[in-house]
């Protein structure tokens, strides 16, 4: 899934910031941008964005996740100069007064206690006219069948109980919460898995996984 998420984010940021970015080379597409990844886990997205030239700060409340992410990043010396990990919460960064050109939070919001307050918190970290990217799982019959029945109970791809269907969020709910956080959803895409090719692709089908690009007002 990560390659299609990265492509959506890269293309969205190039469209939004293209006139101020550093270049067209493989490591320059996002050069000049300061990006925060909230709930970074093992750092797979953060590393990808750093390799595109952005200055990336990646945070996770779990110190163990940060330790794993740091250890993996140390295997690539090129990441040292523009990738930083911290075991802190978004709320702590808000208190420190930090802001970023772009904030990403992927597959996180469906696990928090209060998604609206979470959205407001991470939006406070976005500069005026900056970007916010959120991905999650839609609340549909298909998402229940695939994300819970198949992934958790049949195939064992993730531990049972990882997801709660009641905490899945629709694109409309994400747009509403973004609006309450002074952001407007400007683009939406589904992410669809093809088991025959073992490949993810972007799609207009948002019935299961989807990703949204929002822009903060001034």
TrEMBL record:
The keyword Transferase applies. Gene3D superfamilies: Vaccinia Virus protein VP39 (3.40.50.150). Pfam families: Methyltransf_23 (PF13489). GO terms for cellular component: mitochondrial envelope. It comes from the Eukaryota. GO terms for molecular function: 3-demethylubiquinol 3-O-methyltransferase activity; polyprenyldihydroxybenzoate methyltransferase activity. The keyword RNA-binding does not apply. GO terms for biological process: methylation. Keywords: Methyltransferase, S-adenosyl-L-methionine, Transferase, Ubiquinone biosynthesis. Transmembrane segments: none annotated. This is 3-demethylubiquinol 3-O-methyltransferase. It comes from Ostreococcus lucimarinus (strain CCE9901).
